[in-house]
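Please fill in the sequence for the structure shown.

STRUCTURE ENCODING:
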């Protein structure tokens, strides 16, 4: 819950700066406006510069980061080469989940990812019931799969030196009062932010940094204190999120080191590197409890901001958590700040976006832009706050 208070504290501090702004508080000649009204006017203009960005997989696609359809196959190819024993068990579970009982090679590009993840949750439940569960964070099979998913994503994520101009431009126009809510596992935005000389924070402790909330976890996060074979270890400069200062019992840690793919060659699964990723499927209800603090009271993010940009998020009908997250907020955001003219921009080339986001567009104040995310959209974002 600390990020909520940090948001309110930062906004109040910025409002004080507005009240003490060098811009004239006295109305212009002939302008009928009190000093209080002038302060409110300045505050309104200031708040209009603050945005919420909600990122889905389509945001990262132009950088070459694989989407779900190809990610599983790439990850399983790497899994088979590097960790054959556990791979065989996961491959066997994939056959069962897909009802494949022949001896033909399994094409993971045709396996339904969420169904495989749900089946692995069943296996974990079975182990838990028999007292055989590997550890609280999950079964060996699920943790190893997460590791190779994360490693594959890191392999395809550009380094700071090679971040495409589109993402550098996007990062450049972000400021400290913007809030980024990402459902992506990759570290593309982190690399882009660092490449333009800015900083980011996952837990809002740095007021001047870009606020980045990753509701599905990240390739460079882990759940629980870093350890290997039961012994504490920290060779990657892991830093605590500080979530256990509030409602959480198990801490989440993050490291910048794992944003760089070469670092991954030094580590095997089921050790110090144990990526915290919220997988699709019915097990998601269990995983999100570990970072529930980031899901708490999202209306606070919308109360101190103005326009909302939803980029490349498909909003699948069966993704009940994200849909519920939106259903409880987006239809009502016009009333959160009391400032008129708020717009939700939905940038998504998918034809299904029209139906998937109808609960927002029917209320009004929303636009669907059926295009791939590109520089034109970044220019619009920048221009809009310049004239706020």
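FILLED IN BY: designer on duty
SEQUENCE:
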């Amino acid at each position: 819950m600390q990020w909520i208070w940090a948001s309110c504290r930062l906004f109040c501090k910025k409002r004080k700066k507005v009240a003490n702004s060098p811009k004239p508080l006295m109305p212009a000649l002939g302008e009928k406006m009190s000093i209080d009204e002038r302060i409110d006017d300045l505050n309104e203009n200031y708040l209009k510069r603050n945005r919420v960005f909600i990122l889905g997989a389509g945001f990262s696609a132009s950088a070459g980061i694989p989407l779900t359809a190809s990610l599983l196959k790439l990850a399983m190819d790497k899994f088979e080469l590097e960790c054959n024993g556990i791979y065989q068990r996961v491959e066997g579970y994939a056959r069962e989940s897909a009802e494949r009982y022949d001896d033909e090679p399994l094409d993971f590009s045709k396996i339904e990812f969420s169904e495989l993840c749900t089946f692995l949750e069943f296996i974990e439940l079975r182990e838990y019931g028999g007292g055989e569960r590997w550890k609280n964070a999950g079964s060996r099979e699920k943790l190893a799969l997460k590791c190779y998913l994360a490693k594959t994503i890191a392999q395809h994520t550009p380094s700071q030196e090679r971040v495409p101009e589109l993402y550098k431009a996007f990062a450049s126009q972000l400021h400290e009062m913007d809030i980024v809510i990402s459902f992506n596992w990759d570290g593309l935005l982190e690399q882009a932010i660092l490449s333009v000389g800015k900083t980011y924070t996952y837990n809002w402790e740095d007021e001047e940094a870009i606020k980045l909330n990753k509701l599905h976890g990240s390739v460079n996060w882990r759940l629980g204190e870093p350890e290997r074979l039961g012994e504490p270890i920290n060779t990657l400069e892991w830093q605590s999120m500080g979530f256990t200062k509030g409602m959480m019992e198990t801490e989440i840690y993050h490291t910048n080191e794992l944003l760089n793919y070469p670092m991954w060659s030094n580590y095997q699964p089921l050790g110090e590197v144990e990526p915290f990723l919220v997988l699709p499927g019915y097990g998601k209800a269990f995983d999100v409890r570990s970072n529930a603090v980031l899901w708490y009271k999202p209306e606070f993010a919308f109360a101190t901001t103005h326009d909302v940009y939803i980029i490349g998020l498909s909003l699948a009908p069966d993704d009940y958590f994200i849909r519920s997250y939106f259903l409880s907020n987006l239809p009502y955001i016009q009333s959160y700040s009391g400032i008129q003219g708020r717009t939700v921009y939905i940038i998504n080339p998918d034809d299904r976006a029209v139906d998937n986001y109808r609960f927002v567009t029917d209320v009004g104040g929303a636009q669907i832009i059926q295009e791939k995310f590109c520089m034109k959209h970044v220019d619009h974002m920048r221009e809009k706050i310049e004239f706020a």
